[in-house]
Amino acid sequence: MSVIGSTFRSVLSASNLSKSIINKRAALTGKSTTTSSDIFNKNKQVLNRICQPSRAASSGTAAAGVPESPPMICRPCQPSDRDAMIDFMSTRFVTREPLMKAIGATPSNSSLFVEHCIDESIIQGASFLALDSETGKICGVRLNGVGPPSPLEKECDFGTTINAIPKFLDDVEGDMATLLNTDQFMRHIAICVEQSSSQCGIATQLMIMSVQFAKREQLKHLTAMCSWSLPYKLSLKMGFKVVREIS
């Protein structure tokens, strides 16, 4: 993996978000015997209460050289968004993200992994998306998980090309639960914004909603593994600190 041109950075929020830890480990880490729909339905009222859709509109006075943001709505991801999210992440994230590009990932050979990540994020109820309020189309997705990824993820067969991804990410992040002394933390999985809407504040709004969710759920930390400069800079801007860096 040393051939990858960009620097991979694992960043961690320095400040505790709360002194208490949520008591939802079984439901949020997939260790419960309940079904995916049961978990989502249980969390849906919480999401609706603490994460009301956020509406943002363009001011119409964009600075020179800065794209003007389309009117958009940011809200929690729902099961009904699954197909649109898979299409968006497959055609935007997979084709642009440095690690995916370095190993030759395509929408076709990465489909199982993309579906897995989206399904897990929807089940845990901690992910958000931005919609163009005029067209209803997705213009940004922020995938989050709660707690460390399941050890079974490294054993799943996502195909010859993609199987290296979970192993590599695990090697980079290390045992974050031990480092934090808790498994109740928000883990950033991926963020992707429509290229034509980049640098319009969409990623920042999705980050803010993620932080608000973590605070309300009394999660003590947020972590992120950044493989390109924009999310890395955004994380630093939001108060994250670097704990591991791999060139």
From TrEMBL:
InterPro entries: Acyl_CoA_acyltransferase. It comes from the Eukaryota. One of its GO terms (molecular function) is N-acetyltransferase activity. This is N-acetyltransferase domain-containing protein. It comes from Ciona intestinalis. The lineage of its organism: Eukaryota, Metazoa, Chordata, Tunicata, Ascidiacea.
